[in-house]
Design a protein that fits this description.
Order of helices and strands: HHEEEEHHHHHHHHHHEEEHHHHHEEHHHH
Number of domains: 3
Shape: globular
Strand content: 5-15%
Largest sheet: 5 strands, mixed
Oligomer: single chain
Length: about 475
DNA sequence: CTATGGCACGGATT
DNA sequence: AATCCGTGCCATAG
């Protein structure tokens, strides 16, 4: 509401427009590279030194005040999220901690390695003693994300009871990628299964297979497994399919067996979020804090000395410098424009989808990019660019793609999941379709089948047997 | 005969 | 213009 007046003042040149568009579609990571190269090649641009808020230690814009701590409490409705651009070079998941709280951290590397990535997730939950143990555990991961030491050794090394090390391992295992820090593929699978079962239906047979028939499972001995558990071979195959589609034994890789994992997928997992949403003071009653990440320890501006210097420069230099100056000012404007758009976007989105963020997928309101573009009075493609390839970290530390805010069917799928999870006798797709219609979601029978498939839920006739039998 | 999955079409979305 | 998504129709499995 404050920093936005420039917006329509100056006629937008095509260059301006084009560059803003480009910047908008960049993720925080790419943005940082862009800024750095611009900074290196243009003397007129400078990065002003960081200032931190004395209260919460956030990085501040050059003249601004802290948007969180200085927020006027009287006109504050807890519904309205606090949205602001947050320059931060640290990227730690909670703004109220400083880099000093984290051991062994180098300067912010953008593409984290696995241990760093995990440590950042778990650090906020741990005391400094525990953090040391966590860091130690994480330095003993192999490339598959599995532990190379035994917990007992670690406990001995730190002179701690085994149980306390186990507790820390458990926290690590529940971080992304789920199952990391397990001592075996089997353990990793079990953790993933447990996590998965919180949100979806999982066949009861799956756990038994992993727990008791790991050998046969990895050798695809369906007949053998069917015999062991007294079920049909097709059932085993279905469950194995479920396992191979939803679980992965080597958390460090993203999928089964193959080492040739595509680079982009790895990037997807380890990427820093572009937006971080959290509760103020970590209290769910407080308003949401939405930080649009600006991956720098300071703020960009045009070097005021450069302006002066230009006057005294010799003629031949003058021209070159002038163009530098123009480029720099264009760049700064584009950055502002980008941030401005991101802010408006998130403001609206978080305001609308608050219950999705706080109460889960069931409460996602179906919303399209087109609608949003109309409300914000920008072109549809602007929204598309701003949304694509970006990720958001929710208060529960999950990192999800920003595009999931526009998932047309996520809420229906979630309700469907719950219905199936709480069914007493397995319901057929057409029955499910009817029930959904009663709840206000009218979807075709065929669509129910598709949603089921998306959620990895088995068809009715295979559902009951495996879970009842357990 | 019923429940599901495959294919393909048309409209919406990007 | 390209892509995604919900749906209807039909073949197939149980």
């Amino acid at each position: 509401m404050f920093q936005l007046h420039y917006q329509t003042i100056r006629p937008l040149t095509t260059a301006h427009l084009a560059q803003t568009m480009t910047l908008l579609s960049l993720t925080s990571e790419e943005l940082r590279q862009q800024i750095e190269s611009e900074l290196a090649s243009n003397p007129a641009l400078e990065l002003v030194e960081e200032r931190r808020c004395p209260m919460c230690h956030r990085l501040l814009p050059p003249r601004g005040v802290c948007p969180v701590c200085s927020r006027p409490s009287n006109e504050a409705s807890p519904e309205e999220p606090i949205v602001f651009v947050s320059p931060r070079d640290d990227f730690y998941t909670h703004g109220d901690r400083t880099a000093d709280d984290y051991p062994d951290e180098g300067v912010s590397t953008i593409a984290d390695d696995l241990p760093t990535y995990v440590l950042r997730q778990v650090a906020p939950e741990l005391g400094s003693e525990q953090r040391k143990i966590a860091a130690y555990l994480l330095t003993h991961l192999d490339e598959d994300g599995l532990l190379t030491t035994s917990l007992i050794e670690v406990a001995r090394y730190f002179h701690k009871p085994l149980s306390s090390v186990e507790a820390i391992q458990k926290i690590i295992q529940h971080a992304e990628p789920v199952g990391v820090g397990s001592t075996s593929p089997q353990e990793a699978l079990l953790v993933q299964l447990e996590v998965l079962s919180e949100s979806r239906f999982v066949p009861g047979l799956a756990e038994k297979l992993i727990r008791e028939a790991m050998d046969q499972l990895s050798r695809h001995q369906y007949a053998e497994m069917a015999r062991m558990f007294g079920v049909s071979q097709t059932q085993v195959q279905q469950v194995v399919r479920f396992i191979s589609e939803n679980l992965y034994p080597f958390p460090g890789r993203s999928h089964w067996g193959d080492v040739r994992q595509p680079a982009n997928e790895a990037l997807e997992v380890y990427r820093q979020p572009d937006v971080i949403i959290s509760y103020m003071d970590n209290d769910p009653k407080n308003p949401l804090i939405v930080e649009v990440i600006l991956p720098l320890a300071g703020t960009l501006r045009i070097n005021p000395l450069f302006r002066g210097a230009i006057q005294q420069a010799s003629d031949e230099k003058k021209d070159a410098w002038k163009s530098d100056l123009e480029r720099a000012s264009l760049f700064v404007k584009c950055m502002q424009q980008r941030n401005h758009t991101m802010l408006r976007l998130m403001q609206r989105l978080v305001g609308l989808q608050r219950s999705y963020i706080t109460h889960g997928e069931k409460h996602l309101i179906p919303f399209t990019r087109a609608q949003l573009s109309r409300e914000l009075e920008v072109h549809e493609s602007t929204i598309s660019r701003a949304v694509s390839n970006k990720t958001v970290q929710l208060p529960n530390r999950r990192i999800i793609p920003l595009s999931s805010f526009f998932d047309r069917s996520l809420n229906v799928r979630t309700v469907l999941r719950e219905m199936i999870a709480s069914e007493s006798t397995p319901l057929s797709d057409s029955e499910l379709a009817e029930m959904l219609a009663e709840k206000g979601f009218s979807v075709a029978r065929r669509t129910v089948a598709k949603y089921r498939a998306m959620e990895g839920i088995l068809p009715a006739h295979l559902r009951d047997i495996s879970s009842v039998r357990a």
